[in-house]
TrEMBL record:
Pfam families: Glyco_hydro_3. Keywords: Cell cycle, Cell division, Cell shape, Cell wall biogenesis/degradation, Cytoplasm, Glycosidase, Hydrolase, Peptidoglycan synthesis. This is Beta-hexosaminidase. InterPro entries: Beta_hexosaminidase_bac, GH, Glyco_hydro_3_AS, Glyco_hydro_3_N, Glyco_hydro_3_N_sf, NagZ_Beta-hexosaminidase. Residues 23-297 form the Glycoside hydrolase family 3 N-terminal domain. The record marks D188 as: Important for catalytic activity. The gene is nagZ. It comes from Chromobacterium haemolyticum. GO terms for molecular function: beta-N-acetylhexosaminidase activity. Transmembrane segments: none annotated. Its EC number is 3.2.1.52. It is found in: Cytoplasm. The active site is at H190 (proton donor/acceptor), D261 (nucleophile). It is an enzyme of class 3 (hydrolase).
Amino acid sequence: MQQTQQSAALPRGPVMAGVAGLRLTDEEKRRLSHPLVGGVILFRRNFQDIEQLKALTAEIRALRSPHLLIAVDHEGGRVQRFLDGFTRLPPMQVLGRMWEQDRPAALAQAENVGYVLAAELSACGVDLSFTPVLDLDWGRCAVIGNRSFHRDPAIVAELAEALQRGLARGGMSTCGKHFPGHGFVEGDSHHVMPEDGRSLAELEADDLVPFGRLAAAGMGSVMPAHVLYPAVDAQPAGFSRVWLQDVLRGRLGFDGVIFSDALDMEGAAGAGGFVQRADAALAAGCDMVLVCNDPRQTDLILANLRAPAQPDLARRLERMAGKAADWAGELAGPAFAAARAQVERLNMPADAMRGPDVGEAN
């Protein structure tokens, strides 16, 4: 009993791990109690229904104090992990198309989407959805596609700021992805290492604009792309001090959490084995690394990771924890009912859910 009490009071560490099923196994409880772990990422495999999800998040939260951050990819469209009992959210492109016809209505709907998304997850004990996608829709990258608001960076920024306001109403912070922009490349970084040959000046004129705007508006976290920009640095963005320290922290003044994209994606393989990938991401400036699907590799990282000093980690991660409130009461109230009705009335084109499935990664 004494050992359990001692292990329960731990600061959050720099590793976010996945779990296999609908409840925690004893092995997973042991793994998540490791001092290097700071969060858990959930997927569709972890969801049966709302009551089961609430039980799972309660189990996770009970393991540690402060509780492990619980995150999920729940953007809308084809990237919405939890479906049964949740409002079906549109792909963000629907809001971009609406903006072209009726800007005020699109901004109001973006805020409604963020509010409904966040409130429903908060009511189930989830702290964070990795959203919004700030990538531009260049019409080149199928894995981004209709996940993007628009091609115009000013429109993307404006809609994302409205979504961020809605997320805040629902007790949730934001995660802008995939820095500095994944929309220009044709390859899917889940399977290949894409390259974007543009200069920093070209990226600053377009793809970096939404990240700068959201950083100034209080964005809580960022996820870099597993994309190589050889005109800027020889390392992919998620392993690059140039991108994470000089550009994101320096030029854009961002002081939130930097989450790596999943280390089991092919776009991360160039950094070496899983321990080397985690070491390289943290050394470049990531605050937390994601190991989503392979518990053996998670254990290998936990046994061998040389985590750098991270004096700002606790402060940054605390800002990502969901806001405590009577979320069940919120969902039963008239404001939420009105917002949900608006989201449900969004016109979804027949192809709105099409495109390559974005599976057990980000």
